């Protein structure tokens, strides 16, 4: 891999990131995604930012990225939530969001997806202002899809379990990504699962940077926001 890349995951302190390249692995945390990227860029230019949040919000129906990702990861399919339509994310509460989504996509909005409303809209605003063709390039990833590609098969164990966390840590180590020692403020603000997810997002970012990654679907969909909607792996 040439240059630096950043993998990003939402955490209780805001956003956590793991940067790879330049001969070192570094971790960052910030309240906003823009602040996180700025903090990482202060230590060196970034070629790609890969983030575990939907980019490209549908106007009606379901995103092919979500449907295909669920199929690919089998037993972990419920970790991929179906992205609400854009209009649903403007609603003030879960009930009205579900009603809007049901009218435009055929079913309601999960509690998990609605709980991420502010995060989704934050990244939507940031990605559209940054531009996905700018440097650093911004792409969407999903950790379980990335771990399945890294392992060569869908993982059977949940990442919240001891066995699941150890399996994912071993997969990252095999790829040369070690989260050893004191990770500073990032470790304090984010849980172990967030750190593993950010790290594998960085692994996928590295694949994007060198041209080895593929989008799901291929080619990406585009909705009224014009952003390419795909999960890269």
Brief synopsis:
With 233 residues, this protein is an alpha/beta fold. The chain is built from nine helices and seven strands. The strands form two sheets. It has a five-stranded mixed sheet. Strands 6-7 form a two-stranded antiparallel ribbon.
Question: Can you offer a commentary on this structure?
Answer:
By secondary structure, the chain is α/β, with parallel strands linked by helices. Helices cover 42% and strands 18% of the residues. It has 9 helices and 7 strands, in the order E-E-E-H-E-H-H-H-H-E-H-H-H-H-E-E. The strands form 2 sheets. It has a 5-stranded mixed β-sheet. A two-stranded antiparallel ribbon has the order 6-7. Strand 6 and strand 7 form a beta hairpin. The longest helix has 19 residues, at 192-210. The chain is globular, with a radius of gyration of 17 Å. The two termini are 15 Å apart. The model has no long low-confidence stretch (mean pLDDT 92).
Features of the shown structure:
233 residues; alpha/beta; five-stranded mixed β-sheet; two-stranded antiparallel ribbon; 9 helices; 7 strands; 42% helix
| Main pleated-sheet profile | 5 strands, mixed
Roughly what percent helix? 40-55%
Structural class: alpha/beta
**Outline:** globular
Q: Span between N and C termini?
A: 15 Å
Please count the helical segments: 9
β-strand number? 7
Oligomer: single chain
Provide the β-strand percentage band: 15-25%
Q: List the uncertain runs.
A: none
């Amino acid at each position: 891999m040439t240059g630096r890349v950043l993998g990003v995951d939402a955490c209780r302190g805001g956003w956590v990131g793991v940067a790879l390249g330049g001969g070192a692995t570094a971790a960052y945390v910030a309240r906003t995604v823009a602040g996180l990227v700025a903090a990482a860029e202060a230590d060196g230019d970034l070629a790609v930012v890969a983030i575990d949040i939907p980019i490209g919000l549908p106007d009606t129906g379901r995103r092919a990225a979500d449907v295909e990702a669920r199929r690919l990861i089998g037993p972990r399919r419920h970790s991929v939530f179906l992205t609400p339509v854009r209009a649903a994310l403007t609603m003030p509460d879960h009930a009205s969001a579900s009603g809007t989504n049901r009218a435009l996509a055929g079913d309601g909005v999960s509690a998990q997806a609605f709980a991420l409303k502010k995060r989704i809209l934050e990244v939507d605003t940031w990605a559209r202002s940054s531009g996905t063709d700018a440097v650093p390039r911004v792409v969407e990833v999903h950790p379980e899809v990335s771990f399945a590609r890294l392992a060569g098969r869908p993982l059977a164990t949940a990442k919240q379990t001891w066995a699941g966390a150890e399996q994912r840590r071993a997969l990252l180590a095999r790829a040369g990504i070690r989260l050893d020692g004191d990770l500073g403020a990032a470790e304090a603000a984010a849980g172990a699962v967030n750190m593993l997810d950010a790290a594998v997002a960085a692994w996928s970012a590295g694949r994007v940077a060198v041209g080895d990654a593929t989008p799901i679907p291929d080619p990406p969909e585009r909705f009224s926001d014009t952003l390419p909607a795909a999960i890269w792996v």
